[in-house]
Each structure stands twice: as C-alpha cells, then as structure tokens.
Amino acid sequence: MTDAYESRQGRKEAAVNKAVCVVMVSTRTLKYLCLSCMIIQFDKNNLQINEASQGESFYLCFPGLSTYKELIHRVFTRNNGWSRPPYNSLNVSYEVGDDPLSVDRNILSIRQNTGSDRVIYMNQQHGDTVISLKSGFAAAHERVFEADALITDIPGTAIMVKQADCQGIILFDPVTKVVAVVHSGWKGSVKNISGKVVEKMCGDFDVSPENIIAAIGPSLGPCCGEFTTYEEIFPAHFKDFMSGMAHFDLWAITEKQLTDSGVKNEKIEKAGICTRCNTGLFYSYRGEGVTGRFATVAMIKKNQ
C-alpha cells in the first residue's frame, strides 16, 4: 500500500490537569468523559458516545498541544470504524489479518477528519529508526518506511503511528513548526527511541529541545506493565521504575528519556490511560491477543 494513504473522521477530547478530564466531541454533539485512575468511568449520558453512526470516529486530544492552532493532533479510539471483529472497528493496520478494504476506509476517515492531503504511516519494527520528511521531498509520499518514528515540517501531511499497548508519542516544536510521532514499545524504551527522535529533530530541523512540547498517549500502564523476564530484557537502571515484583512504569521511563534529551518536564503531558484496562476504547494486544491497532496522528496545518 502507498504510505500516502488516506484517512477518515473524528471526535475530540481535551484532558485537563494532565489528562484528568477528557472532552469528546462528535460531529453532532459534545460529550464529557471523566477519567478515574486507569479506568475510564462512564455515566449513563456518556454511554451515548458509543452509539454514534458507523463512520463517525472518536478521538482524544491533549490540552497543552491543543493550544497551538498550527497543529492538528488526534488519538483515535477503536470505535465507529469499518472493521469487523476481532478488529472492530477503526483498525489502521494491514498487518493483523483485517480486510484491507476496511483498513482503507478507516485510514480514509482519518484523513478526512484531519483535513490532510495524505496520511503517512510506517511498517513499525520495534526499533529505533527515525525518518525525516522535509518540504519538497515528494518521493517520501510514495513510500512505506521501515521505521518507528516520523518527523516532518510539511503542512497538510499527517503522520501516524499504529498501537495496541505500545506508546504513541507526539513531539512538537511551535518555534520551527516541526512535529514528530513515535511508536515505542518496551523495545523502543530499551533503545531510547524518544531521545533519538529529539536528537534528530535538533539535527535535521534545527529544533531546540527546550521548545519541544511532548505528549505520551494511551498505552500499557504501570498497572499492567508486567515483565517477568525483566532481568534479561531491561537495562539495570530500569529498576528505578519498577513496582512490585515485575511491573514497570514505561510512561515514566519515556518521560525521563525526554528530559535527559533536554525536553522540559513541565512541557510533557501524559494521558495516563492504560490500554489493557480500557479495551472498550483502545486495542490491547495483551488484553485481547488478535486485535487491531488504533492511530495517533499529528499534522502541521496548511496555510500557517
């Protein structure tokens, strides 16, 4: 498939005080959703958000990033797409066994929702390869890169990561108008992909790390981040982020890697939503096994 594929529709959310309260917007109605710890609590009114017609998808936004009008960003939920179980329903991965035509329609809905010219995604490798897409590099739009992070300054080009427990991280510099999306599972954490993306943003786009606004999206939380073989797979210093017998806070590890790279701690937002605890909203490989992938998308607006 071309990496310049398309996408479709959405909904909006803004979390207040580091993702304590979320606003979800449908194309017709405004709904409010409150978060309590790792579990999303619905009241009877908010249950209506899962009753939108097919093709109308919900998304979440970060409050800090939302203050920058030159940036569009979305964390799409799994709901109101075209895929059938077990991929129901806004699955954006062609690699999990879903009908490719359903994935086409889902990505098209995301494109339409963001108003993008194209949606660029990757064949994610759980590695640390980072691709820079610069203005004028038209050939990039016809490739699907083997990588786990994308950086761009091209207005109207949406960049996307696919997730089902791994972290989707957005990095944005409002000064140079450069944005990155990062796919980071535990292997990405071991390889410090977040820090490497910051380094490449600085090297390729003249970004200053202290200007970067970062957001860590819904992913496997410390409540469910159990790694029984941690002594074999994790570096020794990861024990600083260990709780109980074998649980690790991957969110905190990413936050530390970002601050070590020069990103200011006060400019890092965390959704604080565990995907395994919330399979009604997000795909979770640990929670479901065979399942789809949800999308985190970011784009520099056109005509800024």
What features would you describe in this structure?
The structure is a single chain. The protein is an alpha+beta fold. It has a single domain, classed as CNF1/YfiH-like putative cysteine hydrolases (4-Layer Sandwich), CATH 3.60.140.10. 17% of the residues lie in helices and 25% in strands. The chain has six helices and 18 strands. The strands form five sheets. The chain has a six-stranded mixed β-sheet. The radius of gyration is 18 Å and the shape is globular. The chain starts with 20 loop residues before the first strand and ends with a strand.
Ordered list of secondary-structure elements with their pairings:
Elements: E1 21-25, E2 30-36, E3 39-41, E4 59-60, E5 71-76, H1 100-114, E6 118-120, E7 122-123, E8 130-133, E9 145-146, E10 149-152, E11 157-163, E12 167-173, E13 178-184, H2 186-190, H3 193-205, E14 213-216, H4 230-233, E15 242-243, E16 247-248, H5 250-260, E17 268-270, H6 285-288, E18 294-300
Parallel strand pairs: 6-11, 7-9, 8-10, 14-17
Antiparallel strand pairs: 1-2, 2-3, 4-5, 5-18, 10-13, 11-18, 12-13, 12-14, 15-16
